Amino acid sequence: MKILVTGMHGQVGHALQQALSNHHEVVAVDREQFDLSDVQAIREAIQTIRPALVINPAAYTAVDKAESEPELTFAINAIAPRIIAEEAARIGAGLIHFSTDYVFDGNKPSPYVETDPVNPLSVYGHSKLIGELAIQSIALPHIILRTSWVYGVHGNNFLKTILRLSAERDQLKIVDDQFGAPTSSQSIAETVSKLVSVWQMNDFTQSGIYHFTNAGSTSWFGFAKAILQSYETKAEQLALPALKIQSSTIGSIVTAEYPTPAARPKNSRLDNAKLMNTFGLALPSWEQGLEQVMQQIRQFD
Hints:
Elements: E1 2-5, H1 11-20, E2 25-28, H2 39-49, E3 53-56, H3 70-91, E4 94-100, H4 123-136, E5 142-147, E6 150-151, H5 158-168, E7 173-175, E8 179-180, E9 183-184, H6 185-201, E10 208-211, E11 218-219, H7 220-238, E12 251-253, H8 273-279, H9 286-294
Parallel strand pairs: 1-2, 1-3, 3-4, 4-5, 5-10, 6-9, 7-12
Antiparallel strand pairs: 8-11
Helix pairs in contact: 1-6, 2-3, 3-4, 5-7, 7-9
């Protein structure tokens, strides 16, 4: 199957290329060939490539910066998904689109299911919600995957920031009252590859929204501590340089002590049961996802 993957240099786009290319004809594009802020460029690219399936992980993801760039954020995260869906429908293609836990306000005490009321707290979250609604308004086979706390070997992300700051600083404190599932781009790509096959066998039925994260949950502090613990194990095995900050010395704070331009939901946990019940698929635990990424520790910048 011919698959168009956007955001080829992003964390998920890069991983998707690798996971899908063994079984499909993958056409991966970046901003130069597929500018999400340019409606005409999107239309022309899809009409020229004419894929059977479009996978769109590309997005404006600078959550705090989005507060001061709402027009660009909405162009990329809200308008572009609608244009992609329109053009995919025009050529008879399906669409897999990525969304976010930030469509919720985080006030629910338990994990969110797909039918829970949405109430984004930020420009970023609002823009992603409008993108979801736009896709759902167009008649085409589509799957919207809400994921959270994405990281990986490729690109800039929380894991790499923690390793860098732990090497540079003598003290580091991480928020310990926001909870979610760290989700590796590798776990996402490997499971999407399986999802494509199952969806294709089901004749691209079961359109809708699916929660799509690594299993389990932790806080940002818990994630940072696990990153450092894993690094310390690898450092002994591979003779890697020691960090200034250790898993035993990293500190924790609450959200109120670390104000940011964009508000974050305190509960970002997503219930993935619908994905399992519909397609028989589940991502591994966040701890397994982390270890899979940390096995490639020597590839970090």
